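Comment thread on ticket #2218

A.B. wrote:
> Attaching the input chain for the structure job we discussed in standup.
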Amino acid sequence: MTLAFIPSPAHGVVYLGPIPLRGYAFCIIIGVFVAVWLGNKRWIARGGRSGTVADIAVWAVPFGLVGGRLYHVITDYELYFSEGRDWVDAFKIWEGGLGIWGAIALGAVGAWIGCRRRGIPLPAYADAIAPGIAIAQAIGRWGNWFNQELYGKPTDLPWALKITSSADGRVPGTYHPTFLYESLWCIGVALLVIWADRRFKLGHGRAFALYVAAYCVGRFWIEYMRVDDAHHILGLRLNDWTAMAVFLLAVIYIVISAKIRPGREAIVEPGAADDDTDTDTAKAKGDDADPRDKAEVKAEDNAEVEAQDKAEVKAEAEDKAAGDDAEAAEDEAADKDEAVKDEANGEAGATKAGKS
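C.D. wrote:
> Ran it. Output below, let me know if you need it in another format.
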């Protein structure tokens, strides 16, 4: 007898009038916002511009959703294209079904397009958003809880998940909450990447590769616990093989990249450093640079302007006075010259008359 368990929601959707509000979709949306927020903080810390992560996410997120859905539909095609199934259901993403492998692969293509348009190196961008993606996955996994899907083997542990739905072959009972295991594992991966990035100054895509490798380790044992239908190869589920292959690729990338490009990028976004310098200069000249009250500063500025105006008026008056004095002196000198000439002419006339 199970003494405690995690209850499943009675409904995965709530209607606001005619508008359905689905828990699965909300989890994905919230996860995206958190990933962009954290990625933006890390990008700014690396020397990038605020808002760049969101601009590139406009490309990455739609590509990621399409890629995740394609992977799910291709690997579980019988759910949509076998006899008695409706292929239109393949487009109903709100009912669940996103493969993280396809989401990351095609999302990277979208991110590459966005980075190329802005002249940004994709590995640097990937390093900045890696922990955010892990947290987004942690939040997104709760969408499986709303849909009562992707649980593990039966158990009577106190944290067992109670399934109440019998749709699509489900058997009501208590099972391992693999969605919860993966959610907690993803949070641990995010913390690991943040710590390692600070400790070892990871760059050139190595922080992202660490996230991929760490996630694959957890996904392998969690996937092994699941009991939902899946393709098997040599006794292992398809996603187990995928996790092993991707893990090896991530580790190989870390080793080779560390040898070819040690350290991290000095510049992650061209021109961002110049923007910061201009902003700091503007702030130094602005009101924030003066600790005094703004009204006081403004009054002093007005007083300085008034004093300057008075000085200019006084200078003009002095110049005018000096000009007037010069002109008067010239007139006086001219009068004296004229008088001298008249006197000389008078003497000359008198002399001439005496001779006569």
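A.B. wrote:
> Thanks. Noting for the ticket: Residues 289-294, 350-356 have pLDDT under 50 and may be disordered.
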